[in-house]
Write a structure and sequence with these properties.
The protein has no helices and two strands. It is mostly loops. It has a two-stranded antiparallel ribbon with strand order 1-2. It binds zinc ion.
Length: 64
């Protein structure tokens, strides 16, 4: 056996804390386990996201 073999410490557990972006978030709606994208800041999935704009009749409301 050679003494030049590098011996490293065996990593026990996680060496680095998990990033917040690594955690998987699911829809806040009960019984909905849709995984939200890490880039999606909403609490609900697209199917359960509350509608912001009620029905508008013949009106174009500029987005603010
Ligand atoms: Zn949902």
């Amino acid at each position: 056996m050679s003494d030049s073999t590098l011996k490293g410490k065996r990593i026990l557990g996680t060496a680095r804390p998990p990033k917040a972006t690594d955690e998987l978030r699911t829809c806040a709606k009960r019984d909905c386990d849709t995984t939200l994208s890490r880039y999606n800041k909403r609490e609900y999935c697209y199917a359960h996201a509350p509608t912001k704009f009620p029905r508008l009749r013949g009106r174009i409301v500029p987005e603010s």
